[in-house]
Amino acid sequence: MRVRVLGCSGAIAHGCRTTSFLLDDNVLIDAGTGVGDLTLDEMARVDHVLLTHSHLDHVAALPLMLDAVAARRLASNAAPLQVHALPGTIAALKVHIFNNLIWPDFSAIPSVDTPLMRFVSIAVGEVLHVGGKSVEVLPAVHTVPAVGFAAASASGHWVFSGDTGRNPAFWQRVNQLPVALLVIETAFSDREHALAQRSLHLAPSLLAQELEQIDGRQRYPIYITHTKPAETGLIMEEIRRFDEAPNRAGDVRHDIRWLSAGQTFEL
Fold first, then answer.
1. Is the pTM of this model over 0.85?
2. Is the predicted pLDDT of residue 139 greater than 60, yes or no?
3. Is there a contact between 30 and 58 (Cβ–Cβ < 8 Å)?
4. Does the N-terminal peptide bond of residue 80 adopt cis geometry, omega within 30 degrees of 0?
5. What is the pLDDT of residue 245?
């Protein structure tokens, strides 16, 4: 499985695109502004979009992508784009985006029977079979209904936390999986620790507590995502400092790296 990082920033700025990952060429995990770097041909090949939650930085490009490839999908009699999300996420998208006020309702265009887009409800613990891939829905703890995902590959699972605060249930399940790579959010620096807690995001000190829950028998690369552009340098320095502190065995705890748009992983 090939994972292409289209966007992994917590906000926009020059060179910063919000969350979206392309699995092979036909499945999107979230649809943030990073989707805009795909060509029309690449966008037209996407048949499934899996959404972690309804916040704008994770869904902003979905209506725009549909508009960009609508004529192609109609001309080729393509099946509706499948948008997989929690019921609460689907409800938010219907009310606040695809409402014929903010954007056309592509779930009823050109008709309800043959739409450009179809919503598919998902649930935590469900294993989705989409685009030739197996993707498990993981729990997340956020201010709106939210999930993470674990996509199976030949070398193990690509695991994405989604936007989340402290999340014991996530680690309980992740520790049962053969993990090849973990992508986890750290949206704020520790100087905004209180804001991170209120908004159910992680800051470096909270991330440190979360990583302590990893089964000690497992070791895999951990990539940091969703940093605010103005704070990325500080966040990574704070993470470096806590991770250089030895654990009880005297070892460096984790293999922590910074995720960036344009990276590609072959798993």
1. yes
2. yes
3. yes
4. no
5. 73
